[in-house]
Specification:
Elements (H helix, E strand, L loop, with lengths): L16 H19 L11 H28 L7 E5 L5 H9 L4 E6 L11 H10 L6 E5 L12 E7 L8 H13 L1 E11 L3 H11 L2 E7 L14 E6 L18
Parallel strand pairs: 1-2, 1-4, 2-3, 4-5
Antiparallel strand pairs: 5-7, 6-7
Helix pairs in contact: 1-2, 2-3, 5-6
Length: 255
């Protein structure tokens, strides 16, 4: 385990709280019925439901941190990189990246929807950056990842964790992946952790010119209820000499 994980001080909530509540309701309702005087025959909690809820909670509060610690360490960062986190939420990956680039800069982009993550707002992300003692390295931008107010080729690393799938349309998800690639510098690395549509992201990136594209399973630590909802890790590199639509970085907008 990375030493950086031992210093985690932020408060990161849970992912998809409505789903977690649904799992909890399936367990609590039979218990409440028995407590209210109902027959013990009502106490029939499907084992798969209890296991699914447990796996979901573990992925949200522990598993994803372990996976991202490994993935960020594997990037072998030099410490002065510019990193972009798309859909940064409360800042779990944002702050983990910032701890690894003490001489660099990390930008987090989000539209701050609490339905995607409990307590998701810009103030909470800023507070977590303070708690992790990386606030002076972090910029937070309120923006749609389908239309980033950021210049081409600006970032050495672009990451995104469990965010792009929240865009409901296939076209919107494609736009987000293309935007992530556009703002990546030549030679830069892109890493996306997501569910459902990740293999399509690989196709989009290859069509855009990315090389070294891979799609791997993150394993049981990021199962969102079970192996039927795995997290897939998409990795890609922008080859040297490709900057996207423009080589001009002067139009960058930062918070």
């Amino acid at each position: 385990m990375s030493n950086t994980s031992l210093r985690r001080r932020g408060r990161y909530g849970v992912d998809a709280p409505n789903w977690l509540l649904a799992f909890g309701a399936g367990v609590v309702a039979p218990l409440a019925a028995v407590a209210a005087g109902g027959s013990r025959r009502l106490l029939r909690i499907p084992p798969v439901l209890a296991v699914a809820g447990g796996l979901f909670l573990h992925a949200s509060v522990r598993g994803k941190f372990l996976v991202w610690d490994e993935q960020l360490d594997a990037l072998d960062l030099q410490g002065d990189e510019r990193v972009l986190d798309l859909g940064c939420g409360r800042g779990a990956v944002l702050t983990a990246a910032a701890r690894r680039v003490p001489k660099g800069r990390v930008t987090g982009v989000d539209i701050w929807r609490s339905v995607d993550q409990s307590g998701n707002n810009q103030r909470t992300a800023a507070d977590n950056a303070e708690r992790e003692q990386v606030a002076d390295q972090v910029d937070l931008v309120t923006a749609d990842m389908r239309q980033l107010p950021l210049a081409d080729g600006r970032f050495d690393v672009v990451v995104s964790s469990m965010a792009i799938h929240n865009i409901t349309s296939a076209q919107g998800r494609e736009e987000a992946v293309r935007e992530a690639y556009r703002v990546l510098r030549p030679g830069g690395r892109l890493l996306i952790a997501d569910i459902f549509h990740a293999r399509r992201y690989v196709e989009i990136l290859r069509a855009a010119g990315a090389v070294d594209t891979t799609c791997t399973d993150a394993g049981p630590r990021m199962w969102w209820s079970g192996p039927w909802v795995p997290t897939l890790l998409v990795s890609a590199t922008k080859p040297a000499g490709r900057t996207g639509d423009s080589d001009d970085l002067d139009g960058t907008q930062e918070s």
